[in-house]
Amino acid sequence: MLPSGDGAVTSGGFCFCLSGENGGSSYHDDDDDINGSSNRGCMHCKRSDPSSSSSCYSCSSVWLDLFPFKDSEKLRRIIASSAKGFSIGAGLKGGLSLFSILARLRRTRLSSSVRKTEAFSNSEAIALAVKETLRYGLFLGTFAGTFVSVDEIIGALGGPNTQHTGLAIYILMRAAVLASRCGIKSKRFGRICKPLTWKHGDIFLMCLSSSQILSAYILKQDSLPPSYKSFLNKHGGKDTVILQGVKEITCGLPFSNLQAIEKYYKATGVDIKLDPEMEVPCSVEGLHFPLCLMFTLLKFLGRRLAFSIMPYVYPSEALIIHGNQACAAHFVTFLVQAYKRALPVYLPVYLIPALIVHRQGLLTRPCTILGKGLLGTARSSLFLSIYCSSAWMWTCLLFRIFKTCNIPMVAMGTFPTGLSLAIEKKSRRIEISLYCLARAIESFFTCMADIGYLPESKNLKRADVVIFSISTAIIMHCYAQERDVFRSKYLNVLDWVFGVPPPPSETPRCKNS
């Protein structure tokens, strides 16, 4: 039998570990050696030989025995890091203080005049040195312990390998905006940053973002975050089999799911037969856009009149993107459906803040507040529906003009989709464009890495942490020194979280100088 402090008992080839996760005993048999798995040891004792007399490191402490194995290891790491930090801080500061005190004692012993000019006595100097030593030790110990505690909490909640690249890039975009505002008002960098004052720069950023995001939505959805991919699949309005067909014809791959596309359209009441030799997913030669638009409007006014002119409007060739519909007809019908899908998205975005922020104003002027909320909901829903509808409209237009379909054509067709951002309020444009730009940058670099143009770094495993740290440093610098570059609502939130900082002229450093 092992010593009582070891926490494990071996008998007859079994290892009974007292620190089992469920309070029971875990064991392994000697037959494991016969089966060739002799390298496997006790998961609690971490020993390959259960009959060994070496003590179990996880059970060597009575205090750690009170916790399960994993929790005890985390607690031991936190305590160890705090103790190491304290020892380093106290050692460095204590050593410097020791030399200072020894030099002071030597000076006062050699000269009595020096002893009189000293501001405080030797005992006071020793007390101050001990106090500073403890202060530095506690600082480094607390710093190390806090860091390890946060690291363990993050690891327990999301896992240490969970990447937050999207969040880091978005914070970087916010920091870049603040830095550009600082550069614009600077005399030294004002001329360099002058192009950033372009009135419609937010719309241009949205066009760039749309080109990458919508191209990835059609060609490589794996480069998008799961939640954002789900959002696009819902509001994109196309089934995955249709997107797969467009991807194959764009990349020049042979069709693999034409029957699935025909089956999908048949389930919606449209019986079509697709041509395996088609060159573009949208071909309506000889079809005039105004005639299609007029027909679509008439379709909602009178069914008989619509069917009477149907042969002149609907294409004779079946299409992957919109079945047997014409481009203009598909645009209008898709717009109506997209608007219905967008309303539930923006209704809580406007009404819930109105109920919370303006709850007192609702009693005095409910019509004004609710009217603004409903107007904002209708406006933003129109933006999202136009955005999704125009994406298919522009790509169809380019396919018809150039009679070809490839990756650059898709990127060009999705670029002007960002023009729909002009529907939104000016104050919301920059927010939407920066959010989409962060997603576009993440998707772009993911695609480049998958292709091989951007090899993965072996030394930098958590680039998101580096980006986030740099971004927050810029933001906090602007918060402390350049507060006027913040919008009022963001500044109010930061003031509420961190407290209003004193003016630069009243900082402790300025006072001491």
What does this molecule look like?
63% of the residues lie in helices and 2% in strands. By secondary structure, the chain is mostly helical. The protein folds into 3 domains: 1-66, no CATH class; 69-157, no CATH class; 198-424, no CATH class. The chain has a two-stranded antiparallel sheet. Strand 1 and strand 2 form a beta hairpin. Helix 2 runs antiparallel to helix 4, helix 5 crosses helix 17 and helix 5 packs parallel to helix 18 (463-481). The relative contact order is 0.08.
Counting H and I runs of at least 4 residues, what is the number of helices?
Answer: 20
Measured between the Cα atoms of the first and last residue, the distance is 70 Å
- Oligomeric description of these chains: single chain
Query: What Rg do the Cα atoms give?
Result: 34 Å
Instruction: Output the strand order for the largest sheet.
Output: 1-2
Query: How confident overall, as mean pLDDT?
Result: 75
Strand content: under 5%
The rough form would be described as elongated
Share of helical residues: 55-70%
How many domains make up the coordinates? Answer: 3
Q: How many E-type strands?
A: 2
**Unreliable runs, pLDDT <50, ≥5 residues?**
1-41, 43-69, 284-291, 304-318, 507-513
- Can you summarize the main beta sheet? 2 strands, antiparallel
Order of helices and strands: EEHHHHHHHHHHHHHHHHHHHH
Main structural class: mainly alpha
Please render the helix and strand layout as text.
Blueprint: E1 8-11, E2 14-17, H1 31-34, H2 69-110, H3 112-117, H4 122-157, H5 165-185, H6 201-219, H7 226-235, H8 240-250, H9 258-267, H10 289-301, H11 303-308, H12 310-313, H13 327-357, H14 361-364, H15 366-402, H16 407-414, H17 426-451, H18 463-481, H19 488-498, H20 508-512
Helix pairs in contact: 2-4, 5-17, 5-18, 6-16, 6-17, 10-13, 13-15, 15-16
